[in-house]
Amino acid sequence: MEQLTRAAAKRLEDEMHLLEHVERPRLQDDVVRAQGAGDIAENPDVRMVLSDLARVDARIKEISRLLASAAVVDVVSTEAVAPGLVVLLSIDGDEERFLFGSVDDRHPDFSVLTASSPIGQAVAGHKVGDEIMVDLGGHKLSVVILSIEA
Prior knowledge:
This protein is an alpha/beta fold. The longest helix has 30 residues, at 6-35. The mean pLDDT is 87. The protein is 41% helix and 28% strand. The chain has two domains: 3-73, Helix Hairpins; 85-149, Transcription elongation factor, GreA/GreB, C-terminal domain (Chitinase A, domain 3, Roll), CATH 3.10.50. The chain is built from three helices and seven strands, in the order E-H-H-E-E-E-E-H-E-E.
């Protein structure tokens, strides 16, 4: 069973609300406007909007499934890198903040670092100050954990 922090669940709920109440209605309006421009089958704008609408619907279903099946945990220790936490990493000297999680996670401010990625596998369970060398097929990266936040 997937685990989500309350903050991660809230981000997903907020994303779903935005998709359901802003993006989807806007796309539906775009379809109606594009349909008024003539033959739907020959109109590339309609096909593009329908594709966007299908993408939004798929994401809504994905978030619904995740929220319905995941366990929401109240207390998450920030002692070590774990799913649902925000980590600040120095990767070969470049600092970047990530949400450490699964491919289902999204965050408006930074990228998701999945636990299954090479860097994710390397940093999982490590603490602030730890330096880990990550081998990416012969190219080694120095990764230092600078901070961990809930």
